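Why do we bother with holo predictions? Because pocket geometry can differ from the apo form. Keep that in mind while you read this record for heme C.
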Amino acid sequence: MKKFAVVVAAGLALALSLPVVAEEKAATGESESLYGVPWLKKCSGCHGKDGNAKNPKRAKLAGLDKAYIVKQLQEFKAKKRIDKDMNKQAAPLSKAEMEQLANYFSNQPRKPGMADETVAELGESIYRAGNPATGVPACAACHGPAGKGNPAAKFPNLASQHATYVAKQLRWFQSGERANDAGKMMRNIAIKMNPKEIEAVSQYIQGLQP
Ligand code: HEC
Ligand code: HEC
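The structure, written out:
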């Protein structure tokens, strides 16, 4: 019995001391700043200093429209868009810090990628013409023939984005795990796509020159 009480007390002490330690260790935007941009040091660890993430699961941020980046950060913070890394990263950001970060990344040049040739034909045909038989519209209709998007209409730049990242977004729009697209624009499209089409169009997008 005595042993039991000791364990409980130790556990309690640990639980009580944790928030204090967390507070002391919590970084501020300023301490994580780079080139005068708050938090940028943190973001760089995953997305690269120039916003051209090397890991294909992490989006290239370089060349994304500023307003699109702010929208995503606000939605990660509000957990309207789910990603375990990004929900945590966006939590401490103020609106002004989001704007500074978005301004920085939107002004970085995006690096080109290459498409897997074996699926290029299907990918190109989905991107340019959709699949009339199943009602998939042409991606080009909104994201533009070169994939550059249309900032005024809030259609993001896709050109040379990592295929791994793009395919995951399409699967998540399909399942509804990503549901932050206005008017279900992307969910209504992705639900009509099959896995082969998703794979092929993602490769084609990766090969579009920035
Ligand atoms: C631990 C790694 C990690 C860190 C640190 C990180 N990110 Fe991310 N970020 C990711 C991953 C992974 C994704 C892709 C999420 C998904 O699959 O939907 C992502 C996605 C994003 C997106 C969405 C891009 C798009 O095309 O929709 C934005 C914007 C973003 N991050 C900004 C930031 C900013 C700004 C910071 C710094 C405050 C940051 N990230 C720090 C891993 C990270
Ligand atoms: C009716 C217009 C429209 C069409 C057609 C369209 N999209 Fe989109 N797409 C959007 C909008 C709007 C968003 C931004 C959602 C948001 O705000 O988070 C988006 C976002 C995306 C994203 C996420 C980008 C990122 O950086 O996270 C991908 C990937 C994507 N679309 C791929 C496609 C593909 C592939 C097609 C063709 C099969 C397509 N889209 C057709 C409107 C469209």
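The chain has a mean pLDDT of 91.
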